[in-house]
Amino acid sequence: MALIVQKFGGSSVGSVERIQAVAQRVNQTVKAGNSLVVVVSAMGKTTDGLVKLANEISRNPNRREMDMLLSTGEQVTIALLSMALQELGQSAISMTGAQVGIVTEAEHTRARILHIETERVEHHLHDGKVVVVAGFQGISSNGKLEITTLGRGGSDTSAVALAAALKANFCEIYTDVPGILTTDPRLVPEAQLMGEITCNEMLELASLGAKVLHPRAVEIARNYGMPLVVKSSWTDDPGTWVTTPKPQGRSLINLELARPVDEVELDTDQAKVALLRVPDKPGVAARLFGEIARQKVDVDLIIQSIHEGNSNDIAFTVTTPILKRAEAVAAAIAPSLRSPSHPNSDEAEVMVEQNIAKVSIAGAGMIGRPGVAAKMFATLAEAGVNIQMISTSEVKVSCVIDALDGDRAITALRKAFEVEAGEVGKAGGAGEAGGAGEVGEDRVVYLSPPYLPTPPVRGVALDLNQARLAIRQVPDRPGMAARLFGILAKHNISVDMIIQSQRCRIIDGVPRRDIAFTVPRMDGETAQQLLCQVAVDLGWGDVVLDSAIAKVSIVGAGMVGQPGVAAKMFEALAKHQINIQMIATSEIKISCVVTQEQGVQALQVIHSAFELAGTEKFVVPA
Ligand code: ADP
Ligand code: ASP
Ligand code: MG
């Protein structure tokens, strides 16, 4: 007999008939001999409706009252589903988050789970009842018994956390699509179903806009080795398994606040090639990386920053042995990137930097916790280490620094994040198994045959809810990134795609660079205001906000060591005259910022360039 946690999303419980259908499904699973905890969302678009009501009363509703309001949605569903089960002769009991004892921190509207009291649920399970739990909500730990919510889409997180706390055999997420698809079928009906995906890939996809799973749910599955599957509520198809590491006996106390960083890595075998002042028009990145791929040069990080005027800087890192080849390719292509009208200008200058190293912190506890990256930057600043490039992903933040600073950086980071010397990771590698023969394979529980080659690109995601901020003329010295991201972290503003321009300009005797980054759109104006307040004191130039952007990303553990993946993405965009404003990569993802208008088209052309489209079209039921 298995203990299973099943979660049904809003559309799966959107009407009385659908609640009855869920009850039938639950009843069958129990009859097959399993114990069941069922987590449900609010019916249909109830939560959206409640948010709208609040906004009609207040432009800036009190967050405690918001939780009080939004948590009511789920309470309706638990009662109705219990009744429907009882009608089928199945004993069942509904419980709110507070009744279960889903204890969270007191951060209203975005609380993290601290621990879950399992006794009451276990007692009811023991009595043969199905326990129906309200998703997305908890109760604060500060003795005040405040109702909290976990953040939009958080019922997935409730379900996986309950599964981990109850030591369930697995967790099933039932939704309105057949599983995890190569992209959102509402935007690309040819999206294909995946059989499985690694949790690191899913963490990236979920955070980059694929809302089929709440990223924190994947984080918990990864940390606790909880097998997780996403399936259709309407069919019996097998769905998509998220492959997770083997359980490591992690403590269930501070469930979502565990140590955020488990590894500190140093890679000294790195060199950087930059092309400065290339034209800001479609096709430039495609030409450069197309040639690089044809020469079989494997690039690691790629960044492209926006700039004042109409030119960009593109930089990439390679391992030292192939630097000469990479430099030759860049030098050969540079003349063709200069505008014919100014053949002698300083356009497309090639710059090479050999004495660099990459330090990284890695761990699944960084999601939605901007303070972690900020702490890394602050630690490097305190150690007097200047940061040249930054690459962020959901599970890793890497900084390119001067090679001479490598040891100092690693010692400081190890100390700051309490990572033992023995835990310092090996340089390079995907950081997660993507298929047979890759790093850390033994940590992955395969639920379907493991020996399928990992595709370079597993999925494509679009995020239309981001804004871009650029700070002009930031003095190029240690501590600037720390100040900047420290301020944002203090206000809980998450930052993605952080890019410093390669070009350095001397103004008032101080070398300066621009820094650009993306933040959630709803935080854009606040971030701009916060940064404007300190800009003069810190000697920065203008703080510019652009909210009309879209971020399109490809994710796949198989892109590691595969030249040509980036080129293909950039070529697809160039072919459709879509200009790339920013590029940022991590080991398993490449993200491009384009105009908001072109976002959906960008997603579609990239999806088709990687041949992810299937022959069948999905129609997501209303
Ligand atoms: P639920 O209410 O069941 O939690 P959500 O609306 O939160 O459902 O998530 C399911 C939706 O996620 C789908 O209807 C689909 O439009 C969207 N989606 C975005 N990206 C993907 C993807 N890669 N695979 C599947 N669905 C996706
Ligand atoms: N009902 C909540 C929301 O709509 C939580 C969830 O569905 O996961 O965000
Ligand atoms: Mg959801």
Q: Layout of helices and strands, plus pairs?
A:
Blueprint lengths: L2 E6 L7 H16 L3 E6 L5 H12 L5 H25 L4 E4 L1 H4 L1 E3 L8 E4 L2 H8 L3 E5 L2 E4 L6 E3 L5 H12 L3 E6 L20 E3 H9 L7 H10 L3 E5 L7 E4 L19 E17 L4 H11 L7 E4 L5 E9 L3 H15 L11 E14 L7 H13 L6 E5 L2 E7 L3 H11 L42 E5 L2 E10 L4 H11 L5 E5 L4 E3 L2 E11 H15 L7 E4 L2 E7 L9 H11 L6 E5 L2 E7 L3 H11 L13
Parallel strand pairs: 1-2, 1-9, 2-6, 3-6, 4-7, 9-11, 10-12
Antiparallel strand pairs: 4-5, 7-8, 11-12, 13-15, 13-16, 14-15, 14-26, 16-18, 17-18, 19-25, 20-23, 20-24, 21-23, 22-23, 25-27, 26-27
The structure holds adenosine-5'-diphosphate, aspartic acid and magnesium ion.
The site of aspartic acid has 12 residues, from loops.
Mind explaining what this structure looks like?
It catalyses: L-aspartate + ATP = 4-phospho-L-aspartate + ADP. InterPro entries: AceGlu_kinase-like_sf (IPR036393), ACT-like_dom_sf (IPR045865), ACT_Aspartokinase (IPR054352), ACT_dom (IPR002912), AKii-LysC-BS (IPR041740), Asp/Glu/Uridylate_kinase (IPR001048), Asp_kin_monofn (IPR005260), Asp_kinase (IPR001341). Its EC number is 2.7.2.4. GO terms for molecular function: aspartate kinase activity. Keywords: Amino-acid biosynthesis, ATP-binding, Diaminopimelate biosynthesis, Kinase, Lysine biosynthesis, Nucleotide-binding, Transferase. Helix 6 packs parallel to helix 8 and helix 9 (284-294) runs antiparallel to helix 10. Residues 423-451 have low confidence and may be disordered. This protein has 622 residues and is of the alpha+beta class. The strands form four sheets. The chain has a ten-stranded antiparallel beta sheet with strand order 17-18-16-13-15-14-26-27-25-19, sandwiched between helices. Strands 3-6-2-1-9-11-12-10 form an eight-stranded mixed beta sheet, sandwiched between helices. Strands 20, 21, 22, 23 and 24 form a five-stranded antiparallel beta sheet that branches. The chain contains 16 helices and 27 strands. The longest helix is centred in the N-terminal third of the chain and has 25 residues, at 63-87. Residues 9-10, 41-42, 47, 73, 135-136, 152-155 line the site of aspartic acid.
